[in-house]
């Protein structure tokens, strides 16, 4: 009897605790679908028994391994794994989570290098204060958008002067291998060092040496503390590479939706399309043109549609996208390039021939276009560059005709001299973006004819002098251009006088007869 009482005494607190836990627990049936792995390999698993699974649903393979439903068939679900799938075998249990894939977002990601799931790759510890958001929220609807009218300074003179990028715009950077595509996009990120725009660089299937070069360029010349780098390497699971641009978009949208401004560089969508094709073939979807599944256009359209300039009612934030695409032998009419060209608001075409001739950035001004137009350009630059594109195009044609000799008319020589100076001024080294005022000065110098007196071989030194000395020697011009985007009469005169003095320095040192228009 005594021992029974003792037992009761010991059991009472324990029973109370259990009673409390039972009372606190939500009571009700909780169904969890359990499926079974039928086949697994190459980052893909075919799973049976998940009749209720939804598209893009996150599936739990146990042991911290996940995948998401990409293809729903009558008898199986095609699932894309988010890791290599090592340790997963046919017959393993899989359960649906009822949720879609989510990634961390927030200010804590700024200055960090992460994988597409937001896991740190930079060894700087956990991401602070992050919350989870789905990787594919719907794109802003039409009424939530505003016109694209405010510029994004890319710092690359040929882009800012001739094509102009606007906040909320999607501009494709396209060209053959190693033609400077990444460099142009990175310069746009570096150029945001002093702006209110945060940047996201997402590398999909890029060689680690290239990714390291990009990270180093941003760290050395840009504002790494306001940049997020998302990396999915070539040896990562195809699923991880596939979600990379979507996850990075979600991270960038966080700023757009809070009235902020973001720029995303997607490097590159050709590799993403190849991953999409690989996944589609492995999950037995029927191949279409060039063996891509029929939905590859839709995948990229719904991704890029998320770049937008939001209306004032929605906070007035913006997300600008610079997707990159690779061509083969300059073929812009291949399947993925044509898709992307028709989705985006313009394209910057980089030409291998120009690159090999030493014209860098190798932008082909004939085939490049911005469908948003000059509306987004700062007034001062728009006015200075108004006829530059036409002058340059005419020069290129004239140059071709005069290559065989003959035409020596003074007007023709004048045009050739002007055109060759435009070409020289458009040349630019990597990681050296210009400020807006410097661009206005350079374009004005060439278009007003002042630079005709600078020998062609001294043009790059002249441009360098503008970069180095303008801030100190033409402060009022810089203040007006960068503050108001335009120059009043006094400002224009001050700019002309300053450029005139600079030109004299360069033409004074010129060899006899230089600058007379070759
Ligand atoms: N304006 C430039 N001036 C001098 N060198 C440049 C310029 N732009 C690019 N380069 C050089 O050309 C090489 C290729 O550039 P980049 O990696 O940007 O090209 P890409 O088209 O992105 O290449 P990939 O096809 O490998 O992605 C690099 O070594 C880069 O430093």
TrEMBL record:
Q: Where is this site: Required for activity?
A: 368
Q: Where in the cell is it found?
A: Cell membrane; Membrane
The way it spans or sits in the membrane comes to: Peripheral membrane protein
What are the ATPase F1/V1/A1 complex alpha/beta subunit nucleotide-binding domain coordinates in residue numbering?
A: 155-370
- GO MF terms held by the record: ADP binding; ATP binding; proton-transporting ATP synthase activity, rotational mechanism
Q: Tell me, in one coarse class, where this protein mainly resides.
A: membrane
> In its keyword annotation, does this UniProt entry include Cell inner membrane?
yes
Q: Which reaction does it catalyse?
A: ATP + H2O + 4 H(+)(in) = ADP + phosphate + 5 H(+)(out)
* Keywords noted in UniProt: ATP synthesis, ATP-binding, Cell inner membrane, Cell membrane, CF(1), Hydrogen ion transport, Ion transport, Membrane, Nucleotide-binding, Translocase, Transport
Write the Enzyme Commission number(s) for this entry. 7.1.2.2
Q: Could you tell me which residue ranges the ATP synthase alpha subunit C-terminal domain spans?
A: 377-498
An annotated GO cellular component = plasma membrane
Residues that coordinate or bind ATP: 175-182
Give the InterPro entries listed for this entry.
Answer: ATP_synth_asu-like_sf (IPR023366), ATP_synth_asu_C (IPR000793), ATP_synth_asu_C_sf (IPR038376), ATP_synth_F1_a_nt-bd_dom (IPR033732), ATP_synth_F1_asu (IPR005294), ATPase_a/bsu_AS (IPR020003), ATPase_F1/V1/A1_a/bsu_N (IPR004100), ATPase_F1/V1/A1_a/bsu_N_sf (IPR036121)
> Domain ATPase F1/V1/A1 complex alpha/beta subunit N-terminal: where?
32-98
* Homology family: Belongs to the ATPase alpha/beta chains family.
What is annotated about its quaternary structure and interactions?
F-type ATPases have 2 components, CF(1) - the catalytic core - and CF(0) - the membrane proton channel. CF(1) has five subunits: alpha(3), beta(3), gamma(1), delta(1), epsilon(1). CF(0) has four main subunits: a(1), b(1), b'(1) and c(9-12).
Which NCBIfam families does its entry note? atpA, PRK13343.1
Q: What does this protein do?
A: Produces ATP from ADP in the presence of a proton gradient across the membrane. The alpha chain is a regulatory subunit.
Please identify the protein, giving its name as recorded.
ATP synthase subunit alpha
Source organism (scientific name): Jiella avicenniae
Q: Which gene encodes it?
A: atpA
